[in-house]
Each structure stands twice: as structure tokens, then as C-alpha cells.
Amino acid sequence: MARPAHPEAAAAPPARRRAAGRGEWEPAGTAPVARIAVDVPLAHLDRPFDYRVPAHLDDVAAPGVRVRVRFAGRLVDGFLLDRVEESDHTGRLAWVEKVVSPEPVLTAEVAALCRAVADRYAGVFADVVRLAVPPRHARAEAAAAEPAVPPPPAPAPDGTGWTAYPRGAAFLTALAAGRAAHAVWQALPGESWTDRLAEAAVATAAAGRGALLVVPDQRDVDALHAACAAHLPPESVVALTAELGPAERYRRWLRVLRGTARVVVGTRSAAFAPLADLGLLAVWDDGDDSHAEPRAPYPQVRDVLVLRAHAAGAALLVAGHARTAEAQLLVESGWANEIVADRATLRAAMPRVGALEDSAGAIARDPDARVARIPAAGFAAARAALAAGRPVLVQVPRAGYVPWLACGRCRESARCRHCAGPLALPSGRGDEGAAASPYCRWCGRVESSFRCGGCGGRALRASVTGSRRTAEELGRAFPGVPVRQSGGGAEVVARIDPGPGIVVATPGAEPAADGGYGAALLLDGWALLSRPDLRVAEETLRRWLGAAALVVPHGRGGRVVVVADASVPVVQALVRWDPAGHAAAELAAREEVGFPPAVRMAAVEGGPAAVAEILDAGLPAGAEVLGPVEIDPVASDEGPRERALVRVPRTEGRALAAALAAAQAGRSARKAADPVRVRMDPLQIE
């Protein structure tokens, strides 16, 4: 049955005759069989089921609508995927009990995307649809559809900021022509990336197609939405985020579904927005962990957009100041072109970057470094920026006051005598006397008489200093200069006014400064680089570049000081401002050791017997199992847990996901009590 024209949501459902009882219901005259995706997230039921469409629901039972059906003796929700003439099922079919609303909320394109995402991540269709389609809000749905906005005139590619990049104007021309260009864009330091993405959206809209722009957080959504609304009719741009209330979120989502809005700006879940005739899919800062869905099946925005661009024949733009190994793979495979500025343009735009050793010996030899862990060169850069009337940005990896303490004698981590948890000095716990008493970060007990279990020492020292303590120390070091915090327990500031001042921010919470920062101090590099994580270097460079990009060019006195060992490759990449070179080296290193994205990998976590059952269920030929190893339980009353890593060549990734999904389906059918979590290409491998 062909999908009908969009229903008038303001109109009441058409009158329909209801029979006295189900036994007297008659099937619809044409296409009486409905394929229904029931909202039952069990792996062994991850397939459509056939139901009969009664004649009195024939007019409203269209593909994409929400329905209610009987499943295993109870009424459950579902989505009508298709109407067909006959069923392959030989038994008697149950009836579609109710069409919840005539609004076709699950489009065929989004349904296919949900299936593709579930298959890629060894997940269940019902779980992905929950991410894609927001809960219904009847009052918002009852509002009449607004008229669509006509497409804007095409921008002149030579008149935009994309001309700073050799391939930038060509990319914009391709969008205006409706071509499916794929690109990885490295934004220059100081670049107005929101304006560049807005220009790309305008070019796409001028071709009569839709643009979908995904960013990490609400602050980025607000900035990008404002930029798009300045270039396009405001009613044609819609912002979709989790911060919205249920009614407002659903109202905006319906504007996209009904074709009123042609440009969507949003966070993670907006990747599934039902935008028709897609022309551009873009993600900003794809390495940000906000782009990774914490709910099963744990998809990553970049991968979802790649799948969607391929299926829809749309353009794709992976953008940011940094570059992930996954984005580098898109370039090296030839699937995407890179959009980068030449070295001369880059050198003119970047601040001067210097690295200073952050070892204990270097700190001890530098008396200035004892104040807020900032060496003399860092203080000089800050003083010069303040004297020039510009603000200074100080990036601190950890929040709090002193989030980690060590023994003052042997430097071993200070531990709680009750549970062996790490000791810290609390942040904001009343008066100064209370703040002087360390407490356990695990059990919360106050430790009033510390004694080191290793050497017996009773003195404590700060192992890691947090953003709040750093702000206090800088306030004393620069009397009369306003110091404010962003993130790390304090309110995240979106933008600061020009003028001298100091901003202490945790990574990702750095506010933009009108006119740019005069200097940036990136502290405690060791705290970022010492984490046992596969992506630690990539993530550290991403955080550093995000802060350094806010500093004015070196020609205007811009300085960046990173407190880290200058011989470390990631520090050298920052000094040279070479995210592409670092991404290429990262990808080569992962190819050598066999880690994503050079291979497809799955993390299988659960009880020892359950993990063994999954691994024994039949993996693809050539699959290599690492482990299993014991991991910490999620809950205190949980038994032992293990994790195994399974890796295969990229060409076998689909087979691995299918094998793991089949193993999960088998356990689900047997009603296995011990759950197993499967993550494909996990974001963190510690």
C-alpha cells in the first residue's frame, strides 16, 4: 500500500464503523496484512510480526504509525512498517487492536537506518527506535502543520570563509549542486566554525535538500542554531536537544517530520531526525564522548551519520579542530577528502605554542611553578596577555579542590583505611576547617588521622589539584584580576566579555571570549596522558586543541603554554598544530597492534559463565579473543564479572556483530538470568 499524503494532524481521525466484537471484524479490502515492529527489546524477538488490519482501521493504518497489538497475551506498542497482501505465517493472525495516532512518525528511511544501526552494533531494533522517535505528546501532535519555507538563494562559494581552505569552495559548490561529497574538515584556530557550518547548510537548503548538523552539547547547539538562523529564515531551522521538555521536543520534532524545518541542529539523538531529502549530514568534534550513546546498543554519532549518508546519497562532513583515527580512516580509504588549510595560512592563524616539562624535579627547580603548578614562562605569558587587556584561559583536567592526595613522605596514593578508596580534600564543604579534613571518595568517611600503609608517614600532599583550588591560587597570584570558573562543579559559561581576567575551566567547558584569549595555560598534562586508555593521546590532543583554538594568533601576541614533556609525540603535534599527522600516526599504531578502527572489536562483559557462553556460541572464522579478564562489578552486591575483547578484520565486522546478536538471541530465548553487555568498537579500552 502506497504511503498516503501527510494527514492533517488538526483534523479528527476519519469516522470508521466499529464492529461489536473482534469476532465480527472484517479484514481490510487491500493489503490486509501489517508488518509490525513490536516494542519488545528481547533479542530473540528482534523481527517484524504479521497482524491483520481490520477494515475499520484501513484508512489510518499506514506505514509509520504507532499501533497497539496483542503480543504474548498483553497489549504492547509497536510501529507499522508495511502493508502487504499475504503473510508467510501459516497460522491465524492476530488483529491490530488500535492505531494510536494517524501521524506516520517512523519514516521508511529512519526505519531502515534503525535496522542498519542495530545490525552494526549487535543490537535490537526496538532499542534503536527508542533513540530515534521521541515519546508521543498528544497536544503537540494535534497542532496544525505549518507551511514549508521555500529554499533560500544559493550562496556564492567565493564569498564565504571556506576560501581559506583549498578544497573548501569546491565542497560548498558540490552541496549547492546536490552532490554527495564526503569530507573531513580541520578547522583553523580561531575559526568561526558555526558560520562555516551555517554556510554549508545554506548551500544545501538552496539545492532544496535538508541539512542535519550534530554537535556535542547544548552550548554548541545554541551557538550553531543562532548562526544558522542568521543565514536562513528562522522558521526553517530547528534545534533538537535533550534539554527540551517532552512537549516542546515533540513539537519541534514534528516540524522536521512534516517538512516545515529543513535544517536541524542538535545533539546525539538528532542524528535520527526524520529529515526528508537529506543533502548534508555533519558532525562537529566527533571525538567528544558526548557523541557516544550510553544506552544499548551504544551507537556513535559519526558512525550513524556515515551509515545514513551512504544509504541516503547525502553529503557528509566530519569537522573539528582535532581529528580522530576513525576520521583519518575515512580519508585514507578514499571515501572522504580532507579539507585543510595550507601551512602558511595555518601559521598565520595559530598562536605561539610552547611546552614546559611538568616533572616533579622541574616544578621543584622553578619557584614560580609552586603556585598553581604554572612555570615562570606560563606566568610571563599570562601577565603579557593581561597587560594587553586580554583574558587568560587556564585549562585544568580535574574538577574539585584537591581530588587526589598522596603520602607526603613516599608519594604513594593516600588510601582510606576502611575501604582503600582514594582520599581527597572536599570542595565546598562548609568552613575552612572542614575543608582541611580529607575524606574518602568511595565511602565518604572523613579521615582525621591519616597514616600511610606503606611507610607510616602522616603528612599528606596534593597529588592532583582541581579547578577550584587552582582558581584560588591564581586569585592570590594575580591580585585585583577577576578569576572565574567554568565547569568542574561551577556553572558552564558560554561566553565572556573582552577585557583582562582569568578563566579556569575543565576540558570542554572553556567559554568563548569576544576578541579571543591572549594566552592559554594547559596544566597537568601528565594527568591527561597517564590514563590507561587506548585513546588517551587522541583525546588529550583534542582537549588541548579545543582550548588553544580560542587564543588569538601569534601575530597579535597569542601564547599557549602546555605543561607537559615536550618529547611526547602528542605534545609535539600540539606545538606544530598537526592533528592530521597525529591521527595518521595513531591509525598506523592501531593497525600495528590490532585495535579499532583498524579492526572491528567487541567488548563482551558479564558473569564468567555468561561470557564463556557467548564466546562459545560460534564466532566468525579468524576471530581473536583477548581475555577474558576480571573487571570491577557494577553494583556492590553483584558477583564476579569478566570482560573479553573479540576482534576481527574490518571486512568481518558485520559477521561478528551478527554472531554476537545471534548468541544474545539464544540466551534471551532461554531466559538466561545473567545479562551480558556487548559493545561494538567500544569507546574506551582500558
TrEMBL record:
InterPro entries: P-loop_NTPase, PriA, PriA_3primeBD, PriA_3primeBD_sf. Residues 35-134 form the Primosomal protein N' 3' DNA-binding domain. It comes from the Bacteria. Its cofactor is Zn(2+). Keywords: ATP-binding, DNA replication, DNA-binding, Metal-binding, Nucleotide-binding, Primosome, Zinc. One of its GO terms (biological process) is DNA recombination. One of its GO terms (molecular function) is ATP binding. Residues 1-26 are annotated as: Disordered. Residues 1-14 have a biased composition (Low complexity). Binds 2 zinc ions per subunit. Initiates the restart of stalled replication forks, which reloads the replicative helicase on sites other than the origin of replication. Recognizes and binds to abandoned replication forks and remodels them to uncover a helicase loading site. Promotes assembly of the primosome at these replication forks. HAMAP family: PriA. This is Probable replication restart protein PriA.
